[in-house]
Amino acid sequence: MALKFPSQSKLQYVSGSGISNDGWTAYGKLNLPKDLSLLNRRGYSSTDKKGIPYVFRCRFTLFPQDEDGFGYDVLPGIDFATTLKIDGCQNNWVMRNGAVKWHAARDAMWKKAGIKRRNLGTYAKLGVKYNYSGAGDTWLIPIDGDGDAFAGGDWDIDTFSDEQDATYQLKIVGVGVDEDSTSDNAALNVGYSYLMSRSPPPVDSNLETSEGPAEYSHLNRLLSETADYSARTDDIHDDVQALGDAPPYDNWTTEDVNNDITESVELGRCVAGLGNSFGQVIVDVPFGICTLRATHYSQADDNVTNDVSVAVEVLDIYPMQG
Asked: Which of 132, 203, 207, 252 would be a feasible disulfide site paired with 211, CB 3.0-4.6 Å?
C-alpha cells in the first residue's frame, strides 16, 4: 500500500535557547515521521513495511525572528547573516540495506520470542523507529499558532535484545561498535553494523597478472605499429596490477568504529540576512531524521544571540534507492 501523503505537511519550530554569535549552536534533532504522526493523527514511519527507508524532500525556511516575531537583540552590521545547517545520514546502498536487514532482524527477534503481530501495539507495527546519533535521542517539538509546543503523544524507539546484549537501540549517525568483542551497547549504527555482518571486499580485487592485458594486443599493434613493447611489458603489467584494485571508499574492519559510513553529511543550508528577510533551501532527508544547527555572524562580531524560527514543509516522500 502506498504511503498516504500528509495533509498537514508544514511544521514550525523555534530554537528556544538563543543562537550563538560566530559559532554553531545545536538547534535540535528533527524527526519528521514523529511530527507528521503528531499533526496528522496517523502513523508515519522512517521506512516502509519491508524496511526500505523513506527519503523526505522538504523545503526548509529560516526566519531570523523567533515565534513572536522578535528579531535582533542588538543592531548588527550590514554584513550580518544567520545560517541554518542541516545534517543527516548518508543516502546510499549501505544505509538502505542496513535498514532492511534490521527490519527483518526485529521481526525475527519477535518471532523467536513467540510474539505474534496481533500482540503488537498499533504503532509498533510500523517500521523500526531510529535515533539520530545516540540512544534515547531528544527531539525538536513543533509549535502551534500561538508559539507553544504541541503536547503530542508517545514515540517509542525500538529496543532490541539478543544473547550478546540485553537491550540496545539503533542510530543512523555516529560512532560504530566493534561487534567482534563488545557488549552492553546503548545504540548501534545501522550502516556500520550492516557492514559488520558482511565479509569485507578483498584488499586486492583484480585478476592475476597473467590474466591482465595481452602482451601482444592487436589493438596496441594497430595504434602504434612501430612501437616495441617487449622491453616494457613487465612495467605495464605491474601498473595494471596496482591500478584500481582497491575500493574507492573507506574499507572497514571490525576495529574501525569511526569508519566513513558512521559520519553525517550536510544535506543543505540556507542563509538569512539584512538583505533578505528569510532563507530557503530544499533538501532530501533520509529516514526523515536530521539535526539542525544555526549561527549568527558578522565581521564586527555584533554579539547577536536572538532565537530564530524554522518552517519545514514536506514536498515529497519516496523510497531510498541506494
From this structure: 207
The pLDDT value given to residue 2: 60
Q: Does residue 157 share a domain with residue 71?
A: yes
Whether 192 and 215 share a structural domain = no
The pLDDT of residue 120 = 84
Question: Which letter does DSSP use for residue 2 in this model?
Answer: P
Indicate the SS3 state at residue 211: helix
- In terms of domains, do 314 and 259 share one? yes
Cβ atoms 70, 306 nearer than 8 A: yes
Residue 1: predicted pLDDT: 44
Of 207, 230, 203, 204, which is closest to residue 217 (Cα–Cα)? 230
How many Å apart are CA 86 and CA 281, to the nearest integer? 10
Place of cell 524527526: 31
- Based on the fold, state whether residues 108 and 226 are members of the same structural domain: no
| Cell triple for 241 | 596490477
CB-CB contact of 297 with 73 (8 Å) = no
Residue 118 lies in a domain: yes
pLDDT the model gives residue 243: 58
Q: What is the DSSP string of 46-113?
A: SB-TT-PBEEEEEEEEEESS-TTS---SS---TT-EEEEEEEE---SHHHHHHHHHHHHHHHHHHHHT
pLDDT means over runs of 10, the chain (322 residues): 84 82 85 96 93 97 85 78 94 95 89 86 87 94 92 91 85 88 82 84 54 43 54 55 65 76 92 84 97 87 83 96 83
Distance CA 320, CA 53 (A): 6
Model pTM?
A: 0.84
The SS3 assignment for 309 reads strand
Helices (H), the chain: 32-40, 93-112, 190-196, 218-223, 233-242
